[in-house]
Specification:
The radius of gyration is 24 Å and the shape is elongated. α1 runs parallel beside α2, α1 packs across α7 and α8 crosses α12. The mean pLDDT is 91. It is an alpha/beta fold. Strands 12-11-8-13-16-17-19-20 form an 8-stranded mixed sheet, sandwiched between helices. The protein starts with a strand and ends with a helix. The chain folds into 2 domains: 171 residues, Flavin prenyltransferase-like (Rossmann fold); 201 residues, 3-Layer(aba) Sandwich (Rossmann fold), CATH 3.40.50. The protein is built from 12 helices and 21 strands.
């Protein structure tokens, strides 16, 4: 049985929350309703408590410690006010406090007047939250509370319910799964100060790690970056390709899914100087590093392995060859422009030959999309 929090905010669409609660109760979910102060002006707590068969909360401190028990938080209807507060990290009531402290996915169904929805501030807040992995559904076009036709109407409750089921299905499929992810650019040292590296930011790997953790997976990340990781994620910090390989060899056998987003150096200096090189000219001899992804691909057994690839020439053909050579289930092809960017223009190649292309989206959004696809593999 799924445990759901439905947040109800001060919108005329509050009455629709009753139907949404009923759909979840009919589907066997345990529903807890959290209202804002303004929501009580539109609908009574008694009504929502009767339909949900649970006490309705609105005061800070009401079992906030139980936040980890919930599989999904839905805010429907969500006003411009609540969206702005969440985007700004404000926690001045029970609902915003639960959202800020959440360890579960968040689905928001906006409901407001068209002018408010199309206001650049609201658009910016929504885009900010989307880039952080928050899911939005709607709003739709239709007759608004002002009796004007426009966009801002809360999405039909059946559609919200179906979207929530998809999120919960992913949660069920991934809960307890052991995920191992690599992230960042390795460093190959010339001397104690200088090294060879690349522009990979590591953002993609860290977005994936955080999204997997939200869906209940046990996540480990091997990273070369200084990006902070939530305490729920096991972090292993490395620098060089050999350090990366040693850590992967140590952790790989225990994982269910391995995702290699790290930009691992193909070459390293044959010799590392033990002191800072002060010569005016130096000649570096480079030797090839081990192909880590190829090594793990040959011992994958029943594991799922996903690779990432960036090439300057024939990227799709090269990715197809890599997928076959390294025994991958899936490979994501990116572009040079996405290397150090928070956005990505991905193309996914599947083992069965299927190819999916996507436009420019945030790496956080793509992480959610990729996880959704992996949950059905």
């Amino acid at each position: 049985m799924s445990n759901i929090i439905i947040g109800v905010t001060g919108s005329i669409a509050c009455y629709k929350s009753c139907e949404l609660i009923r759909l979840f109760k009919k589907g066997g979910a345990n529903v807890s309703v959290v209202m804002t102060k303004n929501a009580k002006k539109f609908i009574s707590p008694l009504t929502l408590a009767t339909i949900s068969q649970n006490p309705v909360s609105w005061k800070i401190g009401f079992k906030l410690e139980h936040k980890e028990k919930y599989d999904l938080i839905i805010i429907a209807p969500a006003t411009a006010d609540i969206i702005g507060k969440i985007a700004g990290g404000i926690a001045d009531d029970l609902l915003t406090s639960l959202v800020l402290a959440r360890k579960s996915p968040l689905l928001i169904a906006p409901s407001m007047d068209e002018e408010m929805y199309l206001n650049p501030i609201t658009e910016e807040n929504i885009e900010k939250l989307k880039s952080q992995g928050v899911r939005f559904i709607g709003p739709e076009k239709g007759l608004l509370a002002s009796y004007k036709e426009g966009i801002g109407r809360m999405t039909d409750t059946n559609k919200i319910f179906e979207e929530a089921k998809i999120i919960l299905d992913i949660n069920k499929a991934l809960s307890g799964k052991k995920i191992l992810i690599t992230a960042g650019a390795t460093r190959e040292y010339i001397d104690p100060i200088r090294f060879i590296t690349n522009n990979s930011s590591g953002i993609m790997g860290h977005c994936l790690a955080e999204e997997f953790a939200l869906f209940g997976a046990n996540v480990s990340i091997i990273t070369t970056t200084s990006i902070e990781t939530p305490s729920i994620i096991k972090r292993y910090s490395v620098n060089t390709t050999y350090e990366m390989k040693e850590m992967i060899d140590r952790l790989f056998d225990d994982c269910d899914i391995f995702i290699s987003t790290a930009a691992i150096s193909d070459f390293r200096p044959e010799k590392k100087s033990q002191s800072k090189i002060k010569d005016k000219e130096i000649t570096l001899r480079l030797i090839r590093n081990p192909d880590i992804l190829k090594c793990v691909g040959h011992k994958k057994k029943d594991k799922i392995i996903v690779g990432f690839s960036i090439d300057t020439e024939n990227p799709i053909d090269n990715a197809k060859n890599k997928m076959k050579e390294k025994n991958l289930d899936m490979i994501v092809v990116g572009s040079l422009s996405s290397f150090s960017s928070p956005n990505i223009n991905p193309t996914i190649l599947y083992k069965d030959g299927k190819i999916e292309e996507f436009g420019c989206i945030s790496k956080r959004q793509f992480a959610h999309m990729l996880i959704s696809k992996l949950s059905t593999v």
